[in-house]
Structure formats: C-alpha cells, structure tokens
Amino acid sequence: xxxxxxxxxxxxxxxxxxxxxxxxxxxxxxxxxxxxxxxxxxxxxxxxxxxxxxxxxxxxxxxxxxxxxxxxxxxxxxxxxxxxxxxxxxxxxxxxxxxxxxxxxxxxxxxxxxxxxxxxxxxxxxxxxxxxxxxxxxxxxxxxxxxxxxxxxxxxxxxxxxxxxxxxxxxxxxxxxxxxxxxxxxxxxxxxxxxxxxxxxxxxxxxxxxxxxxxxxxxxxxxxxxxxxxxxxxxxxxxxxxxxxxxxxxxxxxxxxxxxxxxxxxxxxxxxxxxxxxxxxxxxxxxxxxxxxxxxxxxxxxxxxxxxxxxxxxxxxxxxxxxxxxxxxxxxxxxxxxxxxxxxxxxxxxxxxxxxxxxxxxxxxxxxxxxxxxxxxxxxxxxxxxxxxxxxxxxxxxxxxxxxxxxxxxxxxxxxxxxxxxxxxxxxxxxxxxxxxxxxxxxxxxxxxxxxxxxxxxxxxxxxxxxxxxxxxxxxxxxxxxxxxxxxxxxxxxxxxxxxxxxxxxxxxxxxxxxxxxxxxxxxxxxxxxxxxxxxxxxxxxxxxxxxxxxxxxxxxxxxxxxxxxxxxxxxxxxxxxxxxxxxxxxxxxxxxxxxxxxxxxxxxxxxxxxxxxxxxxxxxxxxxxxxxxxxxxxxxxxxxxxxxxxxxxxxxxxxxxxxxxxxxxxxxxxxxxxxxxxxxxxxxxxxx
Length: 689
Description:
689 residues; 7-stranded parallel β-sheet
C-alpha cells in the first residue's frame, strides 16, 4: 500500500512530504482489513482523497465515495480518479452516479414529443407550490415540484440560467415556430436527448429551466422501473446504474446514499466500504434526505397526470384532487414559519384526512381504468409507464399524508416559503437511530470511513455509530500554521447585537482590505450582511469588490484568483469547497460567529430534547465547525501566508470561546491591528514596489 501511495504522489510531481497522508492511508487500510469503522480528521493539505482511495483500491475493495459538495465530486472525477487510473499500478474501474432525475428520461421525452398526458410543448403552466429546493422556485410547475422528493435532486444542480442564457437558448431554434419559451426549451432538450451520450444534464452546454427539465425527467418515485417501461432497455439512468454496478469505485452525493439506505440498499451496487467525505455534513444531509416534503404542487401534478388515464365517470375524482391543492395551501399557510402543531387542530386534521381520501380514490380510479382497458376497454393498459407513474405518485402522496396526520415524536414538521406556496418539510429529529437501523446494525453493512478537515465533537454518537465499533484519528495538517497564518480578533468592536456594530465592522473591513492590498475573501453569515457591506466598502477601497451575486460560483472564484488585488464577498456557500492557493487570497474576514439560526425548526426540536445544555451541545459545535471551515480557506499550500480576521469580539470574550478556538488551525493569535499590518506587509510590498 505504501508503495502504491508513493507511485501516485510521484505522479503528481509533488515535492512536499505528506506524513499525515501516509498515516491516514495506513489507518484506512487497517480499518478496512479489520472491518472497523474509522472517523478521521484530516486537516487542509493532507490530501485525504488519496489517503482513502489508495488503500481501498490497493486492497481490492469495492468502494462507494459520498461527497456533500459538487466541487469535491468534480475533483474526484476530473483529477483524483484519472490520476489513480494512470499511476496506481492496480487496475480498477470507476463511475459517477447521480439521482434518477438528473438524467433525461427517454420514455418521458417520447411522450412529450407525441403529446398524450404530458404537458404539450409550448403550453403555459400555472405555478402551484414553492419553496427553496431545486425545481420549486418561481419558474417551477407542479411536475417540477416532484424534483428532489427522491433525495436525488439536491445533487447541486447548476444555477438557474440568467435572462441572457434564456435568450441564447431561444435563438437555438426558430423564433417563429409557434412555440413559447418553454416549448422551445423542451424542443431543444428533446433534440439533445437524441444525441446525448449519458443523458446527464451536466452534459448540457446550457442550463434549462426547472420547468423544462421536469418535462423530460422523472424521479425515482415516478419511475415504473426498467421492466415495466417500453424504453427501459435504452434508459440513461439505468445505463448509469449498470456502469456503477460494474465499477470498483462509485462516486455519489450524500443525499443519494441516504436514499439508498432508505430504499433498503436498492439504489447502489453492493460494496465493501463507504467513504463519507465531508462527513461533518452527514447528520444534516441525512435528516433532509430521510424526510419528505408536502406541497400543493404534488396534488396538482397528480391530478394533471391522472386526468387522461381515468374513465369519464371518474373525472370527479381528478377534480377533487385538483381542488385539494388549494386545501393543502390553505392549511399549510396557517402555520407559515413555524412548526406544525402536534396534534393538528381538529379542523385542519379533518381537511387533510379528506385530501388523503381523495388521493386514495383517484389512485383507485386510475387502477380501475387500467383494469378495464386490460379487458378490452380500449386505451392504455395498467402497465403503461404513464399509469404506473400516476399510481406511484398517488401511493407516495397518500403515505406522506398519513405520516403528517400521525406525526410521531421522533419527527419534526415545519412550514416555510411564501403564504401562496407553502412547503411542509418533515424530517427525523435524531438520525442516529435511523442510520443505526439502516446501516450500522447490519452485519453485512460496508465498513465506513468518515473523513473531514473538521469532525464536529460528538458526531459519531449523533449519527448512531455503535460504541466500540469505530476508531478515531486526527492526522493534523502538513502546514505550519504558527508561521504561515495569524488569527486576529477585533476586540475593540461592539458585539454584533449592539448598536453601532455594523458601521464599526465596515470601517474595520476597509482597514483590513487596505492592509492586504485587496486579496481578501470576506465571508458573511447572511445575504443581507454581504450586500450591505459590499455597498458600503466598494466606494472606499481602490480594489475590485466582487459579490456572490455577480457571477456563477466557478466563474466568480476563477476571476477572484486571476485578479490578485480583487476582493470577494460571499455567504455560506463559500465557507467550504473553495480552493484559492497563492497570494490572491491572503486575508479571510469573517463578519460574525456562524451560529445556526435560533428559529431553525429541526435544531429547535433537538434543543427541546436536550434542555438547558442544548446551546453547548448543538449551537457551539456547529459554529465551531463552520468557523473552522471558513478559516480553512486561507492556507491552501505550503507557500501560502495570510490573516484570518474575525470581526466578532465574542471569539475573544465569550465563555465558550475555547470551544471555538480549539476547533481552528493552530495559528498565532493577536488582538493588535498593527501586528496584522506587519504580518501582511511582506505579502503586498513586492507588488507595490
């Protein structure tokens, strides 16, 4: 194994010794041989992806690697795995597998192209539903609201296209073809599907609207399965699953892995080991993926898909479900921004019970019509993909309504989104018990390696790892933080909750940017804070100030890295997964300690369970982990130097400050602005001369 690692590192052309990587690789090999789970904290610069891939492949293990971010998936697929393929000296195959709704569905595309019960190309759709998940924004229709219900759509879908992107897309087909904007998008997707290699939307050179994509894709809950689909033998998603079934390494996202667990292991091929990279995200992603959402859009989508499938005598069952979309909106809107009460008020429970009965009646009508056609009634029979999708949608919707009406103490439900399009989210409060049942308690379960630059305190217990079944390791980081980095806490500023903090914070930010000569990534805990700071700072510094809203993330990071004296202001999406080595990033400024929202319903339910100790058990560890992730943007190579500046005095004064400081890399610490200036001077002076 050590020889294999040496070959790979040599192929990188790296001159830096990485003893931490060797230590990690040895520990991973030992864990896989002994079939004991391993929780490993590997600081920035360790090279943890090679630290777990090399031993797994050298031992001949079949591995599933799960990641929380698209950036790491891209790194594995475009850099690490091709490197290993070329240099490891051990033959292996690998594949990237995404959720079903990320692939064009050939059957759905054919139905759309031929009309029928699908949305005719160019037809306008009234928006019903809403929320913050992919496919539920202002451009989404009821079908699009199904995206994400299978846990697969949160696969970091690309950003929604701009108006300019849409204009370019429209020009790709004849503007006088009688189709609307949606129709032209769908027509272009159909043409692409005829020549696509994998059918993965990531192949597209343009980003379709969620509404258009929903017309040519299905989620796992809507798919009748390969055997029952006329297009099953040429299905893109099934082809991807087949490639994955033959691969030695399968890269997925953590949402999809949680879906695999919930489906009883039916999504992914059997594997010897699961590597959970970015493991600090596992608890939250599992909570989201093992729950579900209820929206009015699901009712409207079911009604629309079922209408052509029932006999005329049952048209009233379709109308009843269509009307129920309004009922669900009215009930959920009453609890907007709050947890759903337990038990539900009697009137609301009665109304949802009626909705559930209507859904069941419509499912029976669809089945009844299919049985009739199967005995000579004409039309499609019970096994058509359209009918199967409608039956599955009705079944899942009925099950979810039952869960809402009999919500157990182990779950929390809350409503968010605008009053005209509320979304009910239901999630398990404690994922440890669920993961224990689905993963850890299974004797045939794969060996797990949980890796992250920052492992939150208590994570193994919260995700249900059985005591005595796992080992922990902290390999540190190869970087000399005491020499390369300085941690500055602006103790002279007011606390963020005090009057005058925002103005004082802005003044301090300007001084810091000037001291660094630009070269600044400023991380904010809120969108409003980022925008206000950018507006206040932009006219006061002679450097370009970029914000998260200016460009898509990859283009924004590329521009920031290429223009050494620029500044980048961003929110939570940039606290991790951003890698800018070199002098272009010499100062990381953090406006406030990143405590979770006090009104987060899931966390509040967990706080309620813990009582008085909840703040130290939940809020402080989460803030410490995210603070460490943000600070970790600074030092990305052995040659980097710079300052992490925290403009929240609580880091130096609060009783819990050591919990936060101990989570950070071992940087030198100061409260002196003059020391910051002295530390940054050698970085900017060669450029100023």
